[in-house]
Amino acid sequence: MQQSIAFQLFLIAPLLILTAGALVVLLLDGFRISANVKGAVTIATLLLAALGTAASGGLSSPGQTAFHGFIYVDPFTIYMNIILLFGSLLALLLGYDRLKEQGIDAGTEYYALLLFSTAGAMIFVAAAELITLFVGLEIMSMALYALCGSALKLRRSAESALKYFLLGSFSSAFLLYGIALLYGLTGTLFISKIAVTIGGVDSPLLMVAMGLILAGLVFKIGAVPFHFWAPDVYEGAPTSVTAYMACVIKAAAFAASLRILWVAFDQVQSYWAGAVWTIAVLTMTLGNLVALRQRSVKRMLAYSSISHAGYMMVAFLAPGDEAGGGAAILYYLVAYTLMTMGAFAVVLAVTSSNDGSKDQDDITRFNGLGTAKPLLAATMALFMLSLAGIPPGLAGLLGKFYIFGAALRADYVGIVIIGVINSAISCYYYLRVIVAMYFVEADAEDQKVVYVVTPSLASVLCMCALGVVVFGMFPSLLHDSAAFVMMGFGR
Fold it and tell me: Coil, helix or strand for 138?
């Protein structure tokens, strides 16, 4: 059935709203409008885009596309758009009252870049054609490079932006070359058509094309061996940007990877399953082992993010409704976003009033936090326990349970054993933060620090803590909806 232009525009309304909102924010700067107004416009834009996504959700169906098959508007896309928009809103609120303290003077550009990056992430997820996917990746990435370097007065911010730009450019080149080879082998760039024709390709170049595309996706996921940018970039970028990268960008990369591996490369799963198995094992193992030695909490959370990428990649090996890998990874993405965003919010609250006498996010800055700020310490303890998968952090525990259960149903027993061992190892560095907060007294220097939790930061902590508790106590609310979304995925 031929869709009207108006109907197709309605289906992609969230993208149009984000783009228009970014342009409005830039225009407001010319009229010397206050930063608070521009921040409010950005928040309103994200909320309107979320409403537009919810409105178009009732009109979506598995495999549905718009604009001659270039953009997916299926339930999976709607679900991921909600995650991306909610994660972007949390990241925005996290740093809303802390831009100056993070070294960000150009608030207008910060808000506009955040909206452009989110729009690019949504295109990246919704792309039904590989050049469209690449365009979405570049829109997302170019804005993100600038966000990483938005703290102009801090040398480490500029350094992180430069590292990310150079390494990200190489990964984009790998992805683009892989797309070119795949086009030469299959004669099409549409994901659904590649899924039909790839089974008949008999050429060693197919392995090369798949390897290059996988390398480009693995870089954005932050998995081994393309993980080396993450610790330096996470540590050097402003904390609100770090939280955005760790949650929103990673979620978009996983969604795009699901689309490529489970749809385009579905017929040749035997070609890529071994590589994904190896990458997942190396990622969770290296991430956890290196995190053990970190004193910087931001850097520790960076390696934590790497290890969790390894856990989530395990679900790639369990496609289909029977194994349940899709529902598991969607549940984990939501739980991971809430846990990690909340943890970075506490880090920002603890480090924002630093006087420069110590490393800004050294673990010693958490000493005695349980006495100085009991509620702040309690929320951090909840997030750390959930990331470790220890009750009462049931959201993280159940996320791993769903993923490892899916892998067992797909007969990947070995990687489940390795994953459980890694989960046990990770408990050490998560619990070390809790020990510092409750069992180590703050020295005289740290006792002078005043921890200021602004209303916007408090709202992020409340939403993240509430989400972790609710989805931990009632996991079916999220898991069942994720399973429904994955029904018919790839058709």
Answer: helix
User: Peptide bond preceding 391: is omega within 30 degrees of 0, i.e. cis?
Assistant: no
> Using one digit for the tens of pLDDT, what is the confidence trace for 274-289?
999 999 999 999 999 9
pLDDT at 356: 41
Residue 399 CA: distances (Å) to CA of 386, 438, 474:
10, 27, 12
Which residues, listed in sequence order, are joined to residue 190 by a DSSP beta bridge?
Answer: 129
Contacts 24+ apart (CB under 8 A), 164-171: 164/229, 164/233, 167/219, 167/228, 167/229, 168/141, 168/219, 168/229, 171/215, 171/216, 171/219, 171/220, 171/226
Per-residue pLDDT tens over the stretch 304-313? 999 999 999 9
Tell me how far the alpha carbon of residue 438 is from its chain's centroid.
30
Q: How many CB atoms lie within 10 A of CB 187?
A: 11
* Domain regions of the chain by residue span: 268-491
Exposed/middle/buried for residue 364 (C-beta within 10 Å: 0-12, 13-18, 19+): middle
* Residue 154 contacts residue 213 (beta carbons within 8 Å): no
Report yes or no on whether pTM surpasses 0.85: yes
* Torsion sign, CA atoms 475, 478, 484, 486: negative
3-state secondary structure of 320: coil
pLDDT for residue 126 is more than 60:
yes
Question: In which element (H, E) is residue 72 found?
Answer: strand 71-72
Q: What is the pLDDT of residue 491?
A: 54
Q: What is the H or E stretch that residue 51 is in?
A: helix 35-57
362 band by pLDDT with thresholds 50, 70 and 90: confident
Q: Which residues pair with 158 in a beta bridge?
A: none
Give per-residue pLDDT as tens, 347-361. 998 886 544 444 677
Does pLDDT of 446 surpass 80? Answer: no
Query: What are the C-alpha distances in Å from 437 to residues 163, 367, 380, 444?
Result: 33, 5, 9, 15
Residue pair 73/323 in contact by the 8 Å Cβ criterion: no
